[in-house]
Amino acid sequence: MKNRLALFVFLLIVLVSLTMHYRHFPKELIGMHVWRQTQTQSTIINFYEEDMNILNPAKNDRGVGDGVFRMEFPLMQWLVAGIYKLIGNHLIIARIFMFITGLLSVAGIYKLLQAIFRNETIALTGAWAFNFSPSFYYHTINPMPDNFALCCSIWGIALFFLWYRNQKSSLLILSGALLSVGALCKLPFILYFLVPLTFFMLQIYKGGFSKELAANVLKSFISILFPLCWYIYVIPQWYGNGIVSGVLDNEVPFITILDYLQHNLVSNLPELLLNYGSVMFFVSGFYFLFKNKSFRHPLFLVFLVWSLGILAYFLFEINMIAKVHDYYLFPFYPLLFILVGYGAYNLLKLENRFLKNLAIVLLMILPLTAFLRMQTRWNPYSPGFNKDLLTYKNELRDAVPKDALCVAGNDESHFIFFYYIDKKGWGIDHDKLNAKDLKMMIDKGAAYLYSDSRIIDTNPEILAMLDELVAEKGSVRVYRLKNSENTP
Q: Cα separation of 30 and 379, whole Å?
């Protein structure tokens, strides 16, 4: 009966989620965090079109170089590119891949809660609520490595607690491997290793060291060598990256930091991460945690250290997270929905009919509240960048040969503009292009200028270096550059 109920709820999650996302699958990359989405999708396309070496993820803003740009380990991007090799370059394939990854994350939350509580109601309500976290709902069809890292990390933790229940070595090895893949694909998830670390340290404290314990530690942590080696290699290449320095190199005023903290607490947490409908479950989770004295459980310290580690990460990166980077908060998800599932279960078993019925209603409206909160993020009339790039995407791509080197901007991201024109070359932002730099680019092979800045393309010094106007689509003008031996 329990298996049938779990299957029914999961099929319902799939059906409702698919219905909610269906009309967005064919859409281009638009909306919140389109910078990160186009960066990821460009890496996928460059694997597919140029080089499938997983160690060489490439970007389009590369000049005449190879564009190799190593950040997180690009396993997700490489896997999607591999599917492209079989089917072709279609954005919807990446979206479907991410959607399936999201469903696996939901299944992972279910398995995690089941392993922790051994209670079907907690597992099912937690998984249901997690699926309709507004931020998760939005990002689950967006090409972003954070989704893949979250999925692997959730399953890594779930398998660790399953190992704790039945002591099967294969589960511990697989847990460590998945935690390592999660950390490889997104560095903050390396903090999930705090769970096995704290657990084994408590075992040492209580019973001393043993050969069996040493073997278990090795099984759990041997895979961590892969993310450690990758990031030791690539982090020194992250010049000027604020993620590495965090608040240690902070130029944001302290009062602004306090504003960020307040916004994340009173807006991002209840509105984006939890869903307003789940706030009562979350608060109830804390209440019943103390009422039922769950803090006396032998594993409580494991969860406490894990939580403090994620909170420390949040405080360290608060100047980078600011008010907008909700996907930086993905590492919080399992902890949040452990409390949500626990709180929902305890409300549902109350004798108070009003609270019980209220809990049922809140669970039922979660899809609606997620839908209402996130629909504006897929608005093609406000895509989060110059709308003409979206409107005239095909015309701009066809205006010049695909392999022509181009100068393109304005684009602060140096990813969005190049993605939409499907070209490579030199990116410009904030009208920063002078005749000397343009001459250097032309000498190196730049053949065309894509510009949506009249400050740039009407500058007399720049104008003298432009040949003919090849195309004009909305605010974007495409010029052939003079004196270019490489002009096709």
A: 8
CA distances from 228 to 84, 102, 221, 265 (A): 30, 26, 11, 32
Instruction: Give the integer Cα–Cα distance in Å for 116 and 350.
Output: 21
Q: How far, in Å, CA of 35 to CA of 388, rounded? A: 16
Distance CA 205, CA 429 (A): 56
Cα angle for residues 287, 291, 294 (degrees, 5° grid):
95
Q: 3-state SS of 229-248?
A: HHHHHHHHHCCCCHHHHHHH
pTM comes to 0.94
Query: Distances in Å between the alpha carbon of 76 and those of 69, 71, 72, 154, 182?
Result: 15, 13, 10, 16, 10
Predicted confidence (pLDDT) per residue in 166-190, tens digit:
999 999 999 999 999 999 999 999 9
Q: Give the residues across from 409 on adjacent strands.
A: 451
What's the pLDDT at 115? 96
Task: Report d(CA 243, CA 253) in Å as an integer.
Answer: 17
Neighbour count for residue 288 (Cβ, 10 Å): 17
Contact 41, 94 (CB under 8 A): yes
Category of 428 on φ-ψ map: left (φ > 0), alpha (ψ -120 to 50) or beta: beta
Q: Which helix (H) or strand (E) holds 142?
A: none
Instruction: Give the residue among 29, 47, 65 at the shortest CA–CA distance from 416.
Output: 29
Structure tokens at 104: 């696996």
CA distances from 265 to 195, 260, 290, 306 (A): 25, 9, 22, 19
Nearest partner of 391 among 400, 383, 399, 402, judged by Cα: 383
SS3 label, residue 429: coil
Confidence at 488, pLDDT banded by 50, 70, 90: very low
pLDDT at site 207: 84
